[in-house]
Amino acid sequence: MKKSRGRTGRKRRRKHLQSFIDGVSCSHKLEYIKLKKWLKDRGFEDSNLRPAEFWDTGRGLMTAKALQAGDLIISLPEKCLLTTGTVLSSCLGEYIMKWKPPVSPLIALCTFLIAEKHAGEKSLWKPYLDVLPKTYTCPVCLEHDVVSLLPEPLRKKAQEQRTTVQELYMSSKAFFSSLQPLFAENTGTIFNYSALKWAWCTINTRTIYMKHSQRECFSLEPDVYALAPYLDLLNHSPNVQVKAAFNEQTRSYEIRTNSQCKKYEEVFICYGPHDNQRLLLEYGFVVMDNPHSTVYVSSDILLKYFPPLDKQRNTKLSILKDHDFLENLTFGWDGPSWRLLTALKLLSLRADEFTCWRRTLLGDVISARNEQQTLNITAKICHFLIQETQHVLLQISQLKRNNENLKNHLALVEALRLEDLKILQKSAEILCNLNMAKT
């Protein structure tokens, strides 16, 4: 008897150890105990998901039982969701209703988050606020030196994101001042730029899509945000499929998995088929071996390899622009995209072939010479981007040595660039094989 119990004990210990190979449970941490109690008081019951720390994704949720396709991952009652309805029923409501011109649903939620964070212990939402990230890694939060290392199209979007948040802050200052009667401290110190940036990133990276009916007290921007405590601990994976929606019958936001998940594994959801540039821009992270990842080719790089003396150059560019062939030109895991090759084919047309430009856009072969030149130029662009990426990776490794405070941000850009390099090297290989097949 004793022997067999010993074996079972060892087995149980092994199983217990196995459960923590990938992730370490955080259920015992005070902030999660308080959050679970707070959610329970609002009608949320869940014994399957546990907060955990994973070596590759950081904080997430692990399952305490095996999940099958079709299983309900989580069902979060409406009372747990933070929406514009929550904001209007708070002390901010009357100020929002009388403010003209009306504020946007986004600003209403940002204001609520900042005010509740400032309230500290007095906030009804404290258990949720305590588990929110203190800082973010969206481009708006990155140092200028780090942003300059991003690929060109993303660098441009990062600048646009910064401008958006700055303009949002400037245009909301008067509204923030109108809230002064609610605070003992000066609203200028509570609702400062860094507080707004934190609130904006919280909403941008963590909200679920939930359509609300248009209210007169808000501007015409769509009211589609809901913050979902606990549910927002679920991390993204491009390799899973889920169904997520608000269930009108149960009055809960529900997520069902279309994939299997073993006991004690991390449970993932999919934010959408996003490439790494989009993931970094919107959520502040990248995914290695992301099947949706692409490397973008800007029109400036495109033109580097075409003679400026080509009399039809400007006409060709106009045609490409009119037919939307100057954007979303990419290299992917399967080589250059059809759009990139088509744009290069059109630019490679000789004067005597130019009348065939419509056929080019339809994918027709115009001549063997045109095909060959297109492949050669595509390969040159690919090699140029490989060299550029390697150069940036060298800069990053030097900066990492000298800037301890930028290490995390630099590691993020490095991960993005390393993925780009893999894609470009794979594309170079594909182009080399295509060339060999043609000769």
TrEMBL record:
Specify where it is mainly localized. Answer: cytoplasm
Which GO terms label this protein's molecular function in UniProt? histone H3K4 monomethyltransferase activity
Keywords, sorted A to Z: Cytoplasm, Inflammatory response, Methyltransferase, Nucleus, S-adenosyl-L-methionine, Transferase
Cross-referenced InterPro entries, in alphabetical order?
Answer: Rubisco_LSMT_subst-bd (IPR015353), Rubisco_LSMT_subst-bd_sf (IPR036464), SET_dom (IPR001214), SET_dom_sf (IPR046341), SET_MeTrfase (IPR016852), SETD3_SETD6_MTase (IPR050600), SETD4_SET (IPR044429)
- GO cellular component terms? cytosol; nucleus
List where in the cell it is found. Cytoplasm, Cytosol; Nucleus
Uppermost EC category: transferase
- PROSITE patterns (UniProt xref): SET
Where is the SET domain positioned along the sequence?
42-272
Q: Which reaction does it catalyse?
A: N(6)-methyl-L-lysyl(20)-[histone H4] + S-adenosyl-L-methionine = N(6),N(6)-dimethyl-L-lysyl(20)-[histone H4] + S-adenosyl-L-homocysteine + H(+); L-lysyl(4)-[histone H3] + S-adenosyl-L-methionine = N(6)-methyl-L-lysyl(4)-[histone H3] + S-adenosyl-L-homocysteine + H(+); N(6),N(6)-dimethyl-L-lysyl(20)-[histone H4] + S-adenosyl-L-methionine = N(6),N(6),N(6)-trimethyl-L-lysyl(20)-[histone H4] + S-adenosyl-L-homocysteine + H(+); N(6)-methyl-L-lysyl(4)-[histone H3] + S-adenosyl-L-methionine = N(6),N(6)-dimethyl-L-lysyl(4)-[histone H3] + S-adenosyl-L-homocysteine + H(+)
Origin: domain of life: Eukaryota
What is this enzyme's EC?
A: 2.1.1.364
GO biological process terms, alphabetically, are: inflammatory response; methylation
Q: Which family does it belong to?
A: Belongs to the class V-like SAM-binding methyltransferase superfamily. SETD4 family.
Quaternary structure per UniProt? Forms a ternary complex with TBK1 and ZNF268; the interaction with TBK1 is ZNF268-dependent and leads to TBK1 monomethylation.
Write down what this protein is called: SET domain-containing protein 4
Q: Which gene encodes it?
A: Setd4
